[in-house]
Structure formats: C-alpha cells, structure tokens
Amino acid sequence: MAAALTNSFSLLRCSCVIGSLAATKRPLPPLSFSLFRAPPVSIQSKRCTRLISASIDEEASARAAAASVDSGGPTIFDKIIAKEIPSTIVYEDEKVLAFRDINPQAPVHVVLIPKLRDGLTQLGKAEPRHSVILGHLLYTAKVVAEKEGILDGFRVVINNGPGGCQSVYHLHLHILGGRQMKWPPG
Ligand code: 5GP
C-alpha cells in the first residue's frame, strides 16, 4: 500500500515536472527523437522516483520526531556528547561539539551542536539568553569550515520543525561543502 502510494506520488511529481516543462511553450523536440532516446528518460524517471522517495522518508521521519519533541527527553546527540555512541569528532570545546554526519549530503557534512541543550530543541525556541551560544555556534561554523578546507564555499543550514525537515530535537547546524551548492535548496 505504502509502495503504491509512493509510486503514484512519484508519478504525480514527475508529471508535474513534465507539465511545467510543457508550460514554458518552448517547441518540443520531434516525437521520434524522444522515442529513440528512451533509456535516458527511463534513467531520469528512476532518479526522480529515488529523489522523491528520499524526500518522503525525510518528511515522515521529521513528522515522527516532532510528535515526540515535547517529551524533552535525551536525543541521539546526547549519546554522542556523552561518547556513548561513536562519532567522528572534528572540533570540540567546552561549549560545542562538531562531528561528521552519519548520512552526508556533501563531501564535507559536519553537524555542530551546543553541548548544553538548555531548551534549545530547535532554533524556534531561542530566547534572549541563548544569543551568546548562538553567536558561538555561528563563529565555530567558520572555524570548522576553515579546518575542513572549505572556507571558499560552504553552506550552514538549520532545519527547524517538521516543515523544515528537522529530525533531531537538539539544535544543530549543518556545515556542508566540498561541492558546488545549488540554489534554491529543496
Ligand atoms: P536534522 O534532520 O534534524 O536537521 O539533522 C539531523 C542530522 O543528524 C541528520 O543529517 C542525520 O543524518 C544526523 N544523524 C542522526 N543520527 C546520527 C548519528 O547517530 N550519528 C551521526 N553522526 N549523525 C546522525
């Protein structure tokens, strides 16, 4: 059932892309040309399905994470801070910890967190007292980018809430680089 839904959603999204191409009113290539180039279309369709499935997974896990956020319980990041589970740490001081993301979205993908959550489950919960740690996190993002050799071009992302696809409710910055970033982001 879920697979069927995913497939139909994928088709819908792919159709939208095709529909929006048609809406540009640019002349379409001859039909025979399109038919003889069937393999690339098929590859494109598979890629489209894969991307959309990944996107649905992220959104579902973000919604599930948001549903339990008010418990205020520890997250996976508390275990990383306590070194109860392994991570590849790239920077640490008394206030923050930076480690490589387990599911990297770029050649360099580092997650930077405050060691003390202090109510900062997400940026949207920030209060005036948090401005010092928020400033420190942003400055540390630059330090990490420098250490990783991506100072010439990198991106800092904070996902906030289910609409922002946040999946771990302990404020964190994503530091991404090592490839050309695109805009707008997904
Ligand atoms: P969010 O989706 O909340 O913005 O980002 C959470 C990030 O934490 C994700 O990119 C995810 O891959 C990463 N992550 C989740 N669990 C672990 C883990 O156990 N170890 C590491 N290193 N990263 C994790």
Give an overview in words.
The protein has 186 residues and is an alpha+beta fold. The chain has two domains: 2-69, no CATH class; 72-177, HIT-like (HIT family, subunit A, 2-Layer Sandwich). It has five helices and five strands. It has helices at 2-22, 31-36, 38-67, 76-81, 131-148; strands at 89-92, 96-100, 108-114, 154-157, 173-177. A five-stranded antiparallel β-sheet has the order 1-2-3-5-4, covered by helices on one side. Strand 1 and strand 2 (96-100) form a beta hairpin. Helix 1 (2-22) packs across helix 3. The longest helix is centred in the first third of the chain and has 30 residues, at 38-67. It starts with a helix and ends in a 9-residue tail after the last strand. The structure holds guanosine-5'-monophosphate. Guanosine-5'-monophosphate binds at residues 76, 85, 87, 99-103, 111, 159, 165-168. Guanosine-5'-monophosphate (5GP) is lined by residues 76, 85, 87, 99-103, 111, 159, 165-168.
